[in-house]
Specification:
The chain is an alpha/beta fold and 188 residues long. It is 41% helix and 18% strand. Helix 1 packs across helix 7. Bound molecules: flavin mononucleotide. The site of flavin mononucleotide has 13 residues, from loops.
Length: 188
């Protein structure tokens, strides 16, 4: 069973990697094979494939690599900031770049923002529900405080910034692991 945790922020100075790191720490404590995928390293451009993704005909190497990463995962956790009350372009492009690969996967969304990123959460829940992953019904909305940021624009202490919500993330991780085990068992 393998999971990927996607860092949805592509900014060079960001907290998204730190939040994904907390998620990864919680997952690794449970012994699940996990890979953190950094969208800023994938360098997926706005859609530039000649064929629509639903055909599965990918002419570009970056799309083929991304398709192989998603196909190789049982579960996909998207860690996303909220930008101007909506979705940031990186995760949306990553979702739109594929189609069939999303089906049959399990999924979960962790949004973050000053008020928990509820709007981006709802937007990605809608989009992912269309393309295929069976989403964890609760997900997680992380409430950020400006007080947790240092002068360099990142969290001074990521674990402290996530704080009490780490227990909710752990519960989310446990639900996804249980769903992966159930699916694994069903497939024999
Ligand atoms: C373009 C942009 C738009 C933002 N819009 C929101 C917003 O709508 N709601 C919010 O709570 N925070 C907003 N923020 C603040 C971000 O939540 C905060 O900068 C966070 O650190 C961004 O995540 P990142 O550091 O992982 O990139 C915005 C930040 C940026 C750069």
């Amino acid at each position: 069973m393998k999971a990927i945790v996607i860092i949805g922020s592509t900014r060079p100075v960001r907290v998204g990697g730190q939040i994904a790191g907390v998620v990864d720490r919680i997952r690794s404590e449970r012994g699940v094979d996990t890979k953190v995928v950094d969208l800023s390293e994938l360098n997926l451009p706005p859609l530039n494939e000649p064929q629509v993704p639903a055909t599965g005909q990918y002419a570009r190497e970056h799309t083929r690599n991304w398709a192989a990463t998603v196909s190789g995962a049982d579960a996909v956790v998207v860690v996303t900031p909220q930008d101007n009350d909506g979705d940031p372009s990186g995760p949306k492009t990553a979702i739109n770049s594929l189609y069939n690969e999303w089906q049959g996967r399990l999924g979960a969304i962790i949004s973050y923002g000053g008020r928990g990123g509820g709007m981006v959460y709802d937007q990605f829940a809608q989009v992912l529900s269309l393309v295929g992953p069976q989403l964890d019904p609760e997900g997680e909305k992380l409430f950020q405080s400006r007080d947790d940021y240092g002068e360099n624009g990142t969290f001074t202490d990521a674990e402290a910034a996530v704080g009490a919500q780490a227990a909710e993330i752990a519960a989310l991780v446990d639900r996804v692991i249980a769903a992966m085990s159930e699916k694994d068992g069903a497939q024999g």
